[in-house]
Fold:
Amino acid sequence: MRIASLERLQRLLTKLPGVGEKTALRYILKVLERDASLARDLGAELSALPDRIGACVRCGHLAEKTGGDLQLCAICNDTRRDPTILCVVARVPDVLAFERAGSFRGRYHVLGCLLSPLDGIGPHELGIDRILARARDEGIREVVVATPPTVDGEATALLLKREFEASGVAVTRIASGVPHGGDLEFTDPITLGRALAGRRAL
Amino acid sequence: MEPHAGSSLSSLRLSRLDAVDFRNLARITLVPGARFTVLHGANGQGKTNVLEAIAVGCSGKSFRTSRLPELLRTGTTKAILRLRINDGTEERVQDACIGSGSRQLRIDGKRPASLAAYALRSPVVTFHPGVLEISQGPGQPRRQLLDRLALHNDASLEEALLGHAKAQRSRLKLLTDRGPLGRELDVYEELIVRHGMRLFDARFRICAEFLPLAEALHARLALNAEPLRLAYTPRESSPAAFMDHLAERRALDRVRGMSSVGAQRDDVDIFLGERAARTHGSQGQHRTIALALKLAEVEFTARLRHVRPLVLLDDVSSELDRARTAQLFEHLSREASQVFLTTTRADLIVTPEDLKEGDREDLEVRAGELLRRGS
Structure:
């Protein structure tokens, strides 16, 4: 027996990353097992999401909307942050990773994508001009490029370096190497090769 | 790079292959001979498919095709290979599950970091009729040979190989879509140079030891013949010159729709005496050169990995005369750990006389099934 509404929800859930048909069905059955308030709360929160949260107008990180209007995110609003150092990342989860670590006290800029001619993504889509404007308007002295160490991530980093060349702003690249607590024997050859190439004098 | 010619080498051994729905092999179990496995039978029965199954199980890739659907038995949606392999230090199980659009590879149940990481674990050297291209064809198989060896020497080179290829594709797309002046072009050309120079350097270091080895093997194979000379000169001498060449060729590459500068244009030049083998070599001379290069690959891979590779010989007796076939077996009996070969005539395959019980296994392949003598 097919239940159309269940299948519709299942199909919607499988659009989420890491959720296949079986996992989607498990989620649905779990929600059905619990009392109806879980389903209603979930539905209400999900449907309100686009009205409540959007991209920060300055940096592209997640920001709560007030009265339906886009606002600055909590990090851009935080006056204790160092306004002279800007970390450029590809995606929102990268900001969350830095924030979990707590080691960066500057501000961010989320590109939302990486330079990729094969996918039709150029400097305009990256919003390079917006970053240059931020650097000029906010008195930024250093841009830390934290894009991933892929071809497109490296191309984005090189493009940023070139765009900032005449500005007097220092452009730095995060290091790449062996993860903390990881055994060398389990580290993949490319990461080990990069770690070796980026070695420093003691 | 420190090949240890004199050090003791362990031997790679395949103790069992199970294949399901791989080409015309519905379900087979191969228990090979310790040294030689002779797969014989009439044409079109599936002998090469068994070799191909070993190659795919060891390296994740076929030596016949890059199209995965061709590896599936007609009417099926996936092929399964399971290999039990011992390299002298550990026993492991390698699994390859091939679908029409993807392959899943596992070593002892764990997913490898990449296809190259999988392929490097169990080195295989394959001789097949198409291998003559390595001597008389365009440069691609020679570059692939150098890159295989370079990866065995430094697995992190995979980043440069993939990075160079993608940066080249991106540059070409920019040239096609936006013309020769886009500001991203500089960026991708810088990446091409970064990865390309690393490839040139890696190939140069491999060639310094590999090419003399191949020349020496050729001298042994082709007595009294013109000496083989192999020469590798990286196509670009410095990063600055490389960048200049890329910039100079933008307009031309745009018109041609292909990249004319980079590590993909590299080659090993082959000479017999003072003459270019590609234009002046006879078929027989090309066979000997190809054989010397492949035997050198077996020996050099063993030196780099400290383990003797598996050797797959597909129908070599059709490509080589009796004298060269004898030289081949004489060499392989010393340098290879385990040899798998196909032939239409098992009686023509003369293996060394000092083989022990179980060293040689002869199996007939008939309509996708393996038959032992008498079965």
About this structure: The domain at 4-50 of chain A is CATH 1.10.8 (Helicase, Ruva Protein; domain 3). Chain A has a mean pLDDT of 92. The two ends of chain A are 69 Å apart (CA to CA).
